[in-house]
Write a structure and sequence with these properties.
Layout (H helix, E strand, L loop, with lengths): L18 E4 L5 E6 L2 E8 L2 E7 L5 E6 L10 E3 L15 E3 L8 E3 L10 E6 L11 H14 L4 E7 L3 H12 L3 E8 L13 H7 L3 E6 H7 L1 H14 L4 E3 L7 H4 L4 H10 L6 E5 L4 H13 L7 H4 E5 L10 H14 L8 H14 L1 H4 L3 E6 L10 H4 L26
Helix pairs in contact: 1-2, 2-3, 7-8, 10-11
Length: about 400
């Protein structure tokens, strides 16, 4: 079969799947699980089966990414069997991300003997919607639509990945978007420009509302969101407020630290989640995560499942030269581009600990979650410019020119 004939599929398999195979003709997908053998028939560009899907919903038909009906479609949601006691459970989600994202071996430089690092590439969950935030937004946007909202509000830093993803998701679903973005006192009255995430946000028509860091600190994100919500209600709109980072109990169903620890605790994995705090301090995040989990009646203590390490450095979204050098080295040696706010700081702190305490890491198998954020690198261009070389003027020899002064084509 030629490459032009290949059709990409997004396949949801039963949660207890042990093995699956695709027939030579590509007309059938066989799934083996403790419940027996199930044959999923491929017809046209869809995969039909009546089974419980691992992604969390039951359906007569699940369409592949090769079909026009899957991406941006709304699906009913049923949690995995080990999560059925949680409450509240979302009823629906929108398919916004290109999931599942790949996992592969990551050959970081300087690893101790017998240490394996693997990387989960949530930076590949989409283009404009890249990053782990799309997992939360699949649930949050479904809730917004269910409540009859015609616009969404959220809040974050001036280069917030979450705000950019929210703006794109909202536009996909025909919702207006209002972003309260935190910036410096010197820039709060100026046009914020088109760097990084701002370019995407403004291109998809998001309404930008700037506040200073001092105002944000005095008033708080909840009160700011409420104030904007009341203003829009008076204008006849129907806003839906999404908290900072999409972090609430509903968002936890697709979340990062809270969601990962919840899944690990309730499933058979039981692996501890190591998190890197890039703002505030570990105690703040232990308490904040505990609140999210308590909101789902998770029934466990965050400190039993999570270790939070301080990786703030100079402060939120502020990069040291050493952190940026680490990001550059990782890109040059592995091809993986991190972001300067989250994954870059996390990897810098992790690599630093590996070098200082190699025995602690020997023989370990680590899965690192790349949460995306490439657009944020464009905000660091001036700081990174002196750190990146490998350029020179190409030396042109006179013999390369033809008699009339034009270049030779062969």
């Amino acid at each position: 079969m030629g490459s032009a004939s290949l059709i990409p599929y997004r396949i949801w398999l039963p949660s207890d799947c042990k093995h699956f195979s695709i027939s030579r003709s590509c007309h059938w997908i066989g799934v083996t699980s403790p419940g027996g053998y199930n044959k999923l028939q491929v017809k046209g560009k869809s995969i039909r089966a009546k089974t419980t899907m691992a992604h969390g919903h039951r359906a007569e038909q699940v369409e592949g990414e090769g079909s026009s009906g899957a991406f941006l479609s709304k699906f009913s949601y049923t949690p995995p069997s080990w999560a059925t006691d949680l409450h509240p459970i979302p009823s629906h989600f929108y398919s916004l991300g290109h999931l599942p994202t790949p996992i592969h071996r990551w050959n970081l430089p300087g690893l101790p003997s017998n240490t394996e690092v693997w990387i989960k590439r949530d930076d590949l969950s989409g283009m404009q919607l890249s990053g782990n935030k799309v997992r939360k937004l699949e649930f949050l946007m479904a809730d917004a639509k269910a409540q009859g909202a015609d616009c969404v509000i959220t809040i974050g830093g001036i280069q917030s990945n979450h705000c950019r993803a929210t703006a794109v998701a909202a536009r996909y679903l025909n919702l207006d978007c209002y972003l309260i973005l935190r910036t410096t006192r010197a820039q709060v009255d100026e046009d914020p420009g088109l760097t990084g995430n701002l370019l995407v946000e403004r291109m998809v028509g998001a309404n930008i509302e700037l506040v200073s860091k001092e105002e944000y600190g005095r008033i708080g994100s909840v009160a700011l969101g409420k104030f904007l919500e009341e203003r829009l209600l008076k204008e006849g709109k129907k806003p839906y407020v999404i908290p900072v980072g999409g972090s609430n109990s509903l968002g936890t169903c697709g979340g990062s630290i809270a969601g990962l620890s919840l899944g690990s605790h309730l499933s058979n994995l039981k692996a501890k989640v190591h998190a890197f705090a890039v703002c505030d301090d570990p105690d703040y995040f232990y308490d904040y995560t505990q609140g999210l989990l308590d909101g789902l009646n998770a029934g466990f203590n965050t400190r039993d499942m999570i270790t939070i390490i301080n990786a703030k450095g100079l402060g939120y979204a502020m990069s040291t030269t050493e952190e940026l050098k680490c990001v550059i080295e990782i890109a040059e040696t592995t091809g993986i581009i991190l972001d300067p706010v989250y994954s870059g700081k996390a990897v810098y702190q992790m690599c630093k600990d590996i070098m200082e305490n190699p025995s602690k890491w020997e023989g370990r198998r680590i899965l690192f979650i790349h949460s995306g954020g490439l657009f944020g690198m464009f905000d660091k261009v001036q700081q990174m410019q002196p750190l990146i070389g490998k350029w020179q003027r190409f030396k042109v020899d006179e013999s390369m020119f033809q008699a009339d002064g034009t270049g030779k084509m062969s």
